[in-house]
Amino acid sequence: MSVTTVRLQAEVEQHLETIAGRLHRSKGWVINQALSEYIEKQQREQERWQQTLEAMESATQGKVVDASEVHSWLNSWGADNEQDAPRSGKSNWFTRIKPLKI
Q: Which of 2, 89, 94, 97 has the largest CB neighbor count within 10 A?
């Protein structure tokens, strides 16, 4: 594990000390946890942005499905006659997009 020095605003330092005391953990542990969560959040946002760009490119290329087809498909979920995902005339871009991690 490496050591990094940061300058904290007095208010942030006070909150950090309060949290560390309440959790019976070191300030370093709290900072490490907070940064880990922040990094994960940034990675998820970057993945979403990339998916958005890919979807926009697909739409620009005409790889779209009519809204009524999507609504019909969604309404069929859980029914005995559940429909397959609708496909555009050019490509099934809808099934290429990965679900978002929330």
A: 94
